[in-house]
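dumping this here before i forget
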Amino acid sequence: MTVTREDLARVLAGASFQGGYGFRVRASGAGECTLEVPFRPAFERPGGVVSGPVFMAAADAAMWLAILTRLGVDDTSVTVERRTAFLAAARQEDFTCTARVLKWGRRLIYGVAECAGGDGRLLAHHTIWYARAGLPGADAQEAAS
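structure:
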């Protein structure tokens, strides 16, 4: 199954959750996706830094799209767990978020995502588990056990 960057861009554009973020698909490959995250003043928290939820949403969306590169645009896998380490602040700047699937399990998918500034600074590192939905007995609670 071949899912192109353009296919992913269409899926992302149709996702109601992403409208406020303005994410754009920069690149994709087998089990991988990079999003561009354009800065918006609404992202700022007190202190002038981009708020954490923006990084977490970018990581989750990038991983979702990375999964679609292999399982197809109609896949309904869902997030089970995400852990985030914030490593540096972003201040009024665009950044990218690249997700890579590291393990394709029968019920669970595991990967990482990294958000980086335009100068290459690592801003956040995420580990993410997804449950493969639509499989018998693969709901999130059973998959996590």
